[in-house]
Structure formats: structure tokens, C-alpha cells
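ASSEMBLY PREDICTION REQUEST
Request ID: AP-0331
Submitted by: J.K., bench scientist
Number of chains: two
Total residues: 706
Priority: normal
Notes: Please return the full assembly, not individual chains.
Input sequences:
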Amino acid sequence: MELQSLIYLFVGISFAIYIGIALWAKAGSTKDFYVAGGGVHPVANGMATAADWMSAASFISLAGIISFKGSDGGAYLMGWTGGYVLLAMLLAPYLRKFGKFTVPDFVGDRYYSDVARTVAVISVIFVSFTYVAGQMRGVGIVFSRFLQVDVNTGVIIGMAIVFFYSVLGGMKGITYTQVAQYVVMIFAYMIPAIFLSLQVTDTFLPQLGIFAQTTFEFNDGVRAIPEGTYLLHALDQSIADLGFAEYTQPGNLWNMFMLTTALMLGTAGLPHVIVRFFTVPTVKDARVSAGWALVFIAIMYTTISSVAAFSRVNLIKNVQNVEYKAFVNGELTHADGTPNDGRWFKTWEHGGLLAWNDKNGDGKIQYAAGAAFKGKPAFDGENVAEDGHRLTTNGVPAENNGKIENELYVDRDIMVLANPEIANLPNWVIAFIAAGGLAAALSTAAGLLLVIASAISHDLLGQVIFKDKTTGKSTLNEKSELMWARISAIVAICIAGYLGINPPGFVAQVVAFAFGLAAAAFFPTIILGVFDKRMNKEGAIAGILTGLIFTFGYIVYFVFLGGDKADYFLGIAPTGIGTIGTVLHLIVAFVVSRMTPEPPQEVQDLVESIRLPNNAGEAHDH
Amino acid sequence: MSPEKAQAYWKENIAMILKLLVVWFVVSFGCGIIFIEQLNSIEISGVKLGFWFAQQGAIYVFVILIFVYVKAMTSIDEKYGVHE
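STATUS: Completed
Returned structure:
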């Protein structure tokens, strides 16, 4: 079957399943809407958490980032998984015992203050929108590549689909949809990884592929590295030949340390992940559920490091020193007779994420360290050269000190999507990747939108604005709160769509920033709320504000206002600054709380009761 | 439950968490970052050990840690009769 028809078929079938599930699990009450009625099985919840949390960034971009960063990419792998250990031990069980719906609920009740609640609501909305903008852009990119529409149309299609199941189904619909999305996603990731592993190393399990030896003579354009060399040795040697730092050579360990910490604390503080642990029946289930979530995440995350290494090898193997015209017309073969079909090159070139600048005019592609031209490719309209490659108008950077000149620009985000095509894998594998990428982006977008919707309807409207002053209870009945939740979800989708169509221009880093903000704003507040009985509302509010403002200010100053790298605080890059934000939050919260009155007795009793796992409230069946 | 017993339960809980977090720190920040270069001098089948910890090994240990935690916590819960 043609690739395009297969893509329509796979994407169509997967969407039909998601929408079918949304209709089947339609939310009837606010409890269904916010926390799926609190009766989700821990394994199912683990799977849904994994899907919720593994975003377009994990699925589409991460292997690409690591492929180009090499050893330092470990910060992302350890950071995004290590946070689950903190989540399981320090947060999930206690929040489940607390037994309300949202993070602001916890903050508002534990710190007996509507100011604290409101600060938390604003932080939740802020962090979630930062994160969701990247997801919607991801949805747009995947749709545009695979359905051959432009990116903006892709974003709108994505909005329509998220609208359908998150607004109708709420958390209950989303949980079961996400279980289906996890299954689609993991198959879509593993199958091409297994194919690649077999192709490059003859090893079935990609996790073990990096321990294997190459199945081919690896010619990097400088020398031929013989067949049977250990894969990582071959990779280290070849990219060193091409002028890059060795793949397994660590870089700046201090920044790796800060980034890893920020990502770990952020994972544990992300509101849409935390809310997942309100959806299981018991405290024990909340602990187990975090374990299952990490199992399901680890299946993919332990594969990513291998996919990253394979991709880099594959890229060099297939594009180095090949004649452009014959390559993109699919006329080339490797030494062993297998095809080296470069039609993918043309597709991505037209998508604007790949560019070739034939500097030495030999008609062949050369890949090496250094820039192919100044900055990102600026294409000369639709003009092409004689051999068919798109012309760029960028200037040429200084000579590469007599080494091989790099002529190739590859956007990191295309590595996972393009890899199966680069490796000439069967069409159904490529179609599957499309369905998986969409599942990843949509599941995270839906989870985040729901958190935004519940923050607005439940916490802001229900607990602050429509609160009866005398009874302290919400004057909204369940039906009108559910209506507000749906309205908020619709508004949130529209804003997310707008951000996806008009991205603030920093999508690649946005996810890492959202983690930094989540770390600095939430992680310490919740931890202190459980582990420090003396923590009071003054400390909490001061802490959240310090963490959020410091981290946000640092990022804005150095990333968007052109702050100079030389002025980095202790040399810390903006992606890792959440770590310092978290430390400041802890210190300020501690100091302020000790200078102000201790919390009222009933709050201290609440903390005591959260610490004990029994009587967590009944589980609700569907 | 008496306040003393609740206190003892909480202490035991914290002690256990701290032990597990030490392991968590050693395999990730220790093996994968701080001592990565030293561990990289050990190589198994072409893969440097520090590199492996940062890219795969730490993740396997994280998974094991959570299930060890669940098991240990369950037995502490039962010991103090606060399980469900």
C-alpha cells in the first residue's frame, strides 16, 4: 500500500478508537470529570500517567536531542524518570490521602488561605499553558508532515480532536483514552527501534543494541571503520573524524547536574501528573501506580538512548558523500546491495526542516561539524538549483580550519520521525510512527487542558469567586460547576490553539522551562505541606512567589531579553535554573514560616491525618 | 491511634525513604554525573559504564526503587495496623 494511504488508515483507526472511548466513558459528574470518579485501577492509571506525561517532546524530540548532544543527553533521561521516585515517595501517597481534586485544593486547604489557593491556581495555569503551547505545535508539525497540510491546519485539526474527548469525557474519558494512546505510542516507538537495532547491529532488543557490533563497514568519508567494531566505538570514531566531540565524552557536568535536578523536581511538581494520583482507589494504589507509570515510561526511555545512537550512525551511513540527485531520486544502493533511497530527504527539505548547501560544488552531500550556513535555513522562495535542491539565502560561515566543510542542516526534531525513512523501513512502520507521535502530543495536551479547566472552574470559580462567605462552601451546584469546567476547557483549547499557531518562538526549550517553573513553584510547597507541620500560609505564599518569580525572571532575562551568557548565575544555563528557584523557595518558606505564627490546630491535625494511609475515603466504581 | 504510635510510624517511614533516596542519588547524580568520567574508564562491550548509567542504568534502578518502596511501606503499614 502507498505510504500516504497507510498513514490515513493508521491515524484514522487510532482516532476512531480514542473518540469511541470518549463517548463510552462520558463524564456524568464533576468527580468523573476531575478525577475519573476515583476508581481507576493502578496499572491502568500508570499507563495513562505515562501517556499523559510522555509528550510530543519525549516522543518526537528527545532522541534527536540526545543524538546530537551525546553523553550530556543523559540529563534528560535521568531527570525525567528520576522525578517519579520523588513523586512515589514524597508526594503521591499523601496527596491521595488528602483526597480532594487538584493541587490548588491541597495548597488552599493545607495553607488555610484563599490567597495561597489563588497563587497556586495562577501557577497551575501558567505552567500548564507554557507546556501546552509546545504540544500543540508538535501536533501541528506531525499533522503537517503526515497529512500533507500546513502546520496551522494541523494545529486546528488537533484542537478539534482534543476538544471532543477532553470536553466530553473529562478525566474519566481521558484516562481510558490515554491507556489506548499509550499502547499506540509504545508500539509506534518500539517497532522502528527494533528494526533499526536489527539493521545496525543484528540485536533484537534496542536496549542491548548499543552493546553490539556493527553489521557493516562504516565509511564516514574520512576512513572506513571495519564491520564488527563496537557500535559506540564506531560512532565515537566517526564523529571525531568529522570534527565533533566524541559521542560518549561528557561535557559540562555542573550544568548537567543542575538540569537533571530541575527536571526531576519539575516532574514531581507538574500539576497534570500530580492530579493522576487522585484518581486511584487507595493510598497504596497511589504508590503502586507511580511505580507502574515509571515501568511504562522506562520501556520507552531506556530505548531512547539506543535510538539516539542508531540515528546518528544511520544519518552518517546514509547521507555521507552521496550524490544528491541520484540520492533523492532513489537510485542509490549501499555496498551490500540494499537500497539507499533518499526521497525522505526531499520531503523534509520541502517541509523546511532540512537543507543542503553544496559549498564545494561537487554535487555530493558532506556532513561534518560546523554550520552549513549562518543560522536557520532561509529558503529562497521555492527556487531550486539545477539538481533540484532548495536554495538558501543565508551567508556562509568562516572556513572550518581546513577540515571537512559541513553542508547539511538537520533539524533535531525530525530525527525520530525521519529515521525509519532514512533507514528505508517498510511503509507501515512509518505510518505507525505518525499515529504514535500524534498520540503522544494529543494525550499530553488533553491532560494539561483538563488541569487548566479544573483549576479555573473548581479552584478559582468554585472555591474563591462563588464562595459563600458565611458557610465557606461553593454556591455553585454540581451541574453548573461541570458546565463551567467545560466552558473553561473550551477557552483553554482556543488559547492553546492560538499559541500553537503563533508559537512564542521558543518551542524547543519551552518544555524544559515548564519543568523548571513547576519545580520552583510547587515541589517545595507540597513537600513542606506534608513533611513540615510548622509550615504556615505566610511561608508557603512567600515561597511560591519567590520560586516562580526568580525562575521566570531568570529565563525571561537570559532567553528573551538577550542576557549575556557570561552573566549566568554560577554559570547555570536557564534550563537548569529551576533547581536554584526550588532552593530559594525552600529557604524563604522556612525562614518566613518561623517568623510568623504557627498554623491553626485543625491544620496540624490535617497534616497528621495525611501522613497515615488508612481511611483515605471510599473508592468510587464506574 | 495514639500520637506516640503515629510518631513512630512516621519516623520509620522517613528513615526508609531516606535510605532509598541515598540509592537514588548515588545511581543518578553519583554514577551518571559526578563520577561519570571515572566510571567511563570501565568498559563493557564497547559501552562506557558512566555513560550507561546516565542513559539507561539509572532508569532501571529507579523502577526497582519504587517497587521496593511499595513493598517496604506495605509492611510498615501492616505493622502499625494502618493498612486498608
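REVIEWER COMMENTS: The interface with chain A takes residues 1, 6, 9-10, 13-14, 17, 20-21, 24, 28-29, 32-34, 36-37, 40, 44-48, 50-51, 53-56, 58-60, 62-63, 65-67, 69-70, 73-74, 77, 82-84 of chain B (CB under 8 Å).
SIGN-OFF: pending second reviewer
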